[in-house]
Amino acid sequence: MLSLGAVTSPPAAATTIFNNFAGSPAKQTELVKIDGKLYALDISGLVHDGNPVEEFWTKEKDKTSAELRAQLRLVSAAVPEPANWAMMIVGFGIAGAAVRAGRRRNFLAK
């Protein structure tokens, strides 16, 4: 669990810092790149005093803390399946044969 720590609101009025994580039908995900690797931060909600909350408020010039329920996971690159590789190789073979046949026709026509 990640902690937001203490957050102080601006002097104008009470402020909503985060809103509607717990009430959302699905997780909210942000993609982050760290040291060239892609990570997904899945945010599932806020916890205050051990209870899930939908909003996080702080009073004017006051400090409030809450915990953010989230999971950081490495996003792995997709690996092509063998059938895709086979289709790609066959496609290159057909394209090569077509180019070769075109050259042969042009050579014989001269």
The end-to-end distance, rounded to whole angstroms, is: 75 Å
Strand count, sense and barrel status of the largest sheet are:
5 strands, antiparallel
Radius of gyration: 28 Å
Low-pLDDT runs: 1-9, 19-25
**What's the count of strands?**
7
**Beta-strand content bin:** over 45%
Number of discrete helical segments = 1
Helix content: 25-40%
Which structural class matches the secondary elements?
alpha+beta
Overall form: rod-shaped
Q: Domains counted in the coordinates: how many? A: 2
What sequence of helices (H) and strands (E) makes up the elements?
EEEEEEEH
Provide the residue-averaged pLDDT: 71
Describe the secondary structure blueprint for this structure.
Layout: E1 2-8, E2 15-19, E3 28-34, E4 37-48, E5 51-53, E6 55-58, E7 63-74, H1 82-109
Antiparallel strand pairs: 1-7, 2-6, 3-4, 4-5, 4-7
